[in-house]
Amino acid sequence: MSQEEAVGQPFEHEIRVTWGDCDPARIAYTARIPWFALDAINAWWEEKLGGGWFQMELDRGVGTPFVNMTIDFRSPVTPRHRLLCAVRPVRLGETSVSFEVLGRQDGVLCFEGRFTCVFIAVPRFRKAPPPEDIRAVVEAHLN
Amino acid sequence: MSQEEAVGQPFEHEIRVTWGDCDPARIAYTARIPWFALDAINAWWEEKLGGGWFQMELDRGVGTPFVNMTIDFRSPVTPRHRLLCAVRPVRLGETSVSFEVLGRQDGVLCFEGRFTCVFIAVPRFRKAPPPEDIRAVVEAHLN
Amino acid sequence: MSQEEAVGQPFEHEIRVTWGDCDPARIAYTARIPWFALDAINAWWEEKLGGGWFQMELDRGVGTPFVNMTIDFRSPVTPRHRLLCAVRPVRLGETSVSFEVLGRQDGVLCFEGRFTCVFIAVPRFRKAPPPEDIRAVVEAHLN
Amino acid sequence: MSQEEAVGQPFEHEIRVTWGDCDPARIAYTARIPWFALDAINAWWEEKLGGGWFQMELDRGVGTPFVNMTIDFRSPVTPRHRLLCAVRPVRLGETSVSFEVLGRQDGVLCFEGRFTCVFIAVPRFRKAPPPEDIRAVVEAHLN
User: Fold this and answer.
1) Cα(A70)–Cα(A84) distance, integer angstroms
2) Interface touch D68/A73, C-beta < 8 Å
3) Which residues in chain D come in under a pLDDT of 50?
């Protein structure tokens, strides 16, 4: 039994890939993929915390700017199937958090990425440990 | 002699259309065109006022939200040529301004649009007459 | 009783507006709105015809390039609520179709737009009447 | 003397960052950065080969899909200064090429990324060594 199964279904964000996302090669343009992945991470926060980056920053003064993204592109993304992005936190530091995003279409892994953010206190844009409830939400989903 | 010639060369903003702007029909995706047109209007402000929407809003507390856009698409936009967007104000009201944007590639008119904005005072998001220097800049280019 | 009620619920496409769609004024950037509206029209085709622009063009050789878009922006779009885009065809010509898109958040009309497309036969990019089943799908939803 | 100086000025692509590229934190949205970087790589091909991805794929049947991107975000990107993206190839394999992109504003390093593409022969979407002139262009700029 995998760890993923042990902790239940991972969070999955569904994206409707369209004509406008595709380039003349008839697949989603490479620069759209990080956008999709970030949409999925934002959706993870919405689902787990009750608000995405917009609410975190404006209502709570907590920002999570990215310091690194690494993406392997495995297979083209097309409008033929919905894009399912599985998101989970994979590391939580004192002032940072890393997410893994796996994008699949019709059972095929299309891309896998790792994204690291730091927590900052708005408006000074300085690294700061996250509030306890945010830390707790991430910890609850680490595996 | 056209009015345009009478007042000198209109402002022109050059856009490098790329692979990533195109859809599977191998032409710029329709939803990219308004984006290009807005880039051109912002560039007009940069050129004429010394700062675009970012500087107007953050440094001066003046916003210019759009209330209408109307675009006729005449001919496909492609990466084969630079896209030249001619911008000029065509109407100035008490609290509003309208711009015309003509997009051309290789001498061919690709789209023509008209965009109307209202002036607002930030942060109350209320309509307000623009500062005198902004009004003067627009008036100087009306024709 | 309005016509809309007479013919049942209109098609509605839900969009999750996010942080990344917003500009420094903390509302969706103007140039994102036409993109949202086109996503909604594409979703209408997916729902009614079984395939969006991607499938229409690649599988059936039917393109529907836009010749005009006109949008009135009524109220800011934000990530506070889902954006519900009601789409319906409002005119069907020999070789063209017009759609109305109404975008609402939390019961408030945010924008209303009208979009006109022509039918073309790929790959010659020439205007042509649409196939009968496509015409029938549009006609069934005109009101 | 650095290697860069030894071989002359690196290729630099200038990007006008605007209001619409920024999120509510008033800096360019993270997902715009890979887009900027890809624009810069495409511009490198335009400059060095005489045509970007559009021309490579449509006119010559050569595609260069990405297999990996890794980006470190060092400092926020804003509309206050032009974004200068220095691009250079850093590795050329039998059927792949890697580019480094360094984004700077006002002398400050904002991001650094590495992007790896494979060469494919269109339309079969299979890895293939690049044509000799393309290989030569990359080799001439490796350092």
Assistant:
1) 19
2) yes
3) 1-6
Q: What is the CA radius of gyration of chain C?
A: 16
Indicate the range of A4-13, A128-137, C134-143, D52-61 predicted with least confidence: A4-13
Identify the residue among B19, B55, B85, B115 best suited for mutation to test binding to D, counting D beta carbons within 10 A and taking the highest. Answer: B19
Alpha carbon distance D33, D77 (integer Å): 9
For the segment A11-58, what is each residue's pLDDT rounded down to a tens digit? 999 999 999 999 999 999 999 999 999 999 999 999 999 999 999 999
Edge to edge, the sheet with strand B126-127 lists B62-63, B120-121, B126-127
Q: Please tell me if residue D82 touches chain B, with a CB cutoff of 8 Å.
A: no
Residue A85 pairs in a beta bridge with A13, A103
Provide, as residue numbers in chain D, all residues whose Cβ is less than 8 Å from the Cβ of C31.
20
Amino acid at D122: V
Coil, helix or strand at residue A97: strand
Give the class (CATH, top level) of B11-141.
alpha beta
Question: Do A68 and D67 lie within an 8 Å CB cutoff?
Answer: no
Helix A53-60 × helix A32-49 angle, to 10°: 60
pTM for this predicted structure: 0.94
User: How would you write chain C as a 3-class SS string?
Assistant: CCHHHHCCCCEEEEECCCHHHECCCCCECCCHHHHHHHHHHHHHHHHHHCCCHHHHHHHHCEECCEEEEEEEECCCCCCCCCEEEEEEEEEECCCEEEEEEEEEECCEEEEEEEEEEECEECCCCEECCCCHHHHHHHHHHCC
Chain C contact present for B35, CB below 8 A:
yes
Q: What is the pLDDT of residues C54-65, one digit of tens each?
A: 999 999 999 999
Average pLDDT over residues B88-94: 97
**What H or E segment, with its residue span, contains residue D33?**
helix D32-49
Give the tokens for residue D126. 């299979």
